[in-house]
Amino acid sequence: MNYVIIGGGTAAVGCVEGIRALDREGNITLLAAEPYPVYGRPLISYLLEGKTTEEKMLRYREPSWYEENAVTLLHRRAVGVDSGARTVALDDGSALPYDRLCIATGSRPFVPPMDGMDTVANQTSFMTLDDAKHLEEMLGAGKDKKVLIIGAGLIGLKCAEGILERCASLDIVDLAGRILPNVMLPEPAGIIQAHLESKGIRFHLSDSVARFTPDTATLKSGEVLPFDVLVVAVGVRPNTELATQAGCSVERGIRVDSHSATDVEGIWAAGDCALSHDISTDTDHILAILPNAYFQGETAGRNMAGGDASFTQAIPMNASGFCGLHMITAGSYEGDTYLSREDGSYKLLVTRDDRLAGFILLGEVDRAGIYTALIREETPLSSIDFALIREKPQLMAFTRAERAKKLGGVKTW
Amino acid sequence: MKRVYVNEKWCLGCHLCEYYCAFANSGQSSMVKALKGRRIAPRIQIEERNNISFAVSCRHCTDPICVKSCISGALSIVDGAVFIDSDKCVGCYTCILTCPYGALTHSEQGAVQKCELCKTNEFGVPMCVQGCPNQAIVYEER
Question: How much is the pTM?
């Protein structure tokens, strides 16, 4: 059996581990365009912040992992897929045959056209290790560079946190009226914004760049921001071209079922290039988060190896911190809300149809996974003590029998 | 594999498991040095309310969501048990976001800490179990 995985990130790791859980014999070829072993992409901001090193971050899986899993790693780019002949065309002109293929091509930065942007010499996106190295090089060691970040989403803000101590000033522009528009509601977004402003970051919201010169950005509002280094973190686009060429259905992301299978025989897809069914909103969209890439990849791998695995608990969820303020969010925020604020912490629980639909925690985030599990497992709130769950995440809220199952393994007392 | 299991019927809520855990992972040679005058941060924690109490620590799941979700690869499975490489951990708390038991906590050093069944300290067997006066916590195969 020849397995081929296009992509060398987290979804690919999940896919390999999924295949090897069931098949120790088949050949696995992994195509990775980046000249590195696999690393956790979100680590690039921690690298700049000094919380990890390149050596450590490149050990997302130990160096022996490829050999132990009998993976042939090719640092080549796939340029075409022929699903009839079952071959992948590589950038060196060769063709790689496959029996089972996983498309785990991830996403790429989206850079909207902005007037004069091509005149800016010192600019980068912030998605890859090479981007981080490029940014580090542009910043230098002098702490004298003025940095402008376009985009106040997770990528832009984590970048800001990572480089804050390395630059002279930091301005962030976003078209949206609040920071983290995709994962936050206005009030908690305001709390994080105020916290980051207290650390010296300046925000320019509901605004955008009208035109660039090599070292200034004139905003629509008329404000002129001088800068030395520009980071563009507006958003990402899924890499779906190969899937389209192979005949797979693509609607923004590659359409997959709960088995991570595409609608083309012999082809699976996983990670930031693929759609997920978000059970917290009952809608299909891309959940570009690392755990989801692993879950989809592992599901694909098991099924590619002849297993019957399905992944039916996808939800948006994020754990992050910004200059010491921790944030954990999950699910959707449509429903009845239970809000509490104390000691500088913010907690919002959202319920809908006897289920926990979502939550936002800032500051105090201990044991948040108990909340996340309620969403993922769609636990009826009527089956637990919701007053206790509102107070804090605790197993005390479950029935004694349920707790015995959770803490006593298979044995019930 | 042997795991730590909890029988809340026998739990007295005495918190000795927490003290034994903190001592076992302190690197100190005496309990007094390890614990006296300190706020402990044990990897096993008692929940209590009214007459009910029980201890919670890592279940060492066979299919651990924390390991799959870890962004740095700091969490891994070795011979069935879940370990954390605190050197690789960047303290993002994705494991705290995902653990259904609330069994991982932040440590004073910035990384995350969790029960490693005392396999990585000098004791080798779970000290919470050794310290429990009423066999409410046991270490066995199930």
Answer: 0.96
Question: What is the tens place of the pLDDT at every residue in A137-178?
Answer: 999 999 999 999 999 999 999 999 999 999 999 999 999 999
| CATH for B59-114, options being 1.20.1250.20, 3.30.70.20, 3.40.50.720, 3.40.50.2000 | 3.30.70.20
State whether B49 and A43 contact (CB < 8 Å): no
User: Cα separation of A204 and A172, whole Å?
Assistant: 6
Of the candidates A256, A244, A264, which has an alpha carbon nearest to the alpha carbon of residue A285?
A256
For all residues of chain B together, what is the average pLDDT?
Answer: 95
Q: First CA to last CA across chain A, in angstroms?
A: 46
Closest CA to A293 of A309, A279, A314: A314
CATH of residue A198: 3.50.50.60
Burial class (CB in 10 A: 0-12, 13-18, 19+), A389: buried
Q: Could you tell me if A300 and A10 are in contact, meaning their C-beta atoms sit under 8 angstroms apart?
A: no
Closest CA to B126 of B78, B60, B32: B60
Which residue among A294, A318, A370 places its CB closest to the CB of B102? A370
Residues of A in contact with B107 (CB under 8 A): none
Cβ contacts (< 8 Å) between B63 and chain A: which residues? none
Q: Report the alpha-carbon distance of residue A410 to residue A149 in Å, rounded.
A: 51
Tens of pLDDT along A229-285?
Answer: 999 999 999 999 999 999 999 999 999 999 999 999 999 999 999 999 999 999 999
The answer to whether residues A231 and A125 touch, using CB atoms and an 8 Å cutoff, is yes
Among residues A188, A231, A197, which one has the least CA distance to residue A318? A188
How many Å lie between the alpha carbon of B101 and the closest alpha carbon of chain A?
Answer: 6
For chain B, residues with pLDDT lower than 50 are: none
CA distance A25 to chain B (A): 22
Residues B58 and B5: their CA atoms lie apart, in Å, by 10
Q: Which CATH number fits domain B1-57+119-142: 3.10.20, 3.40.630, 3.30.2000, 3.30.70?
A: 3.30.70
At B66-90, the pLDDT tens digits run: 999 999 999 999 999 999 999 999 9
Residues of B in contact with A373 (CB under 8 A): 100
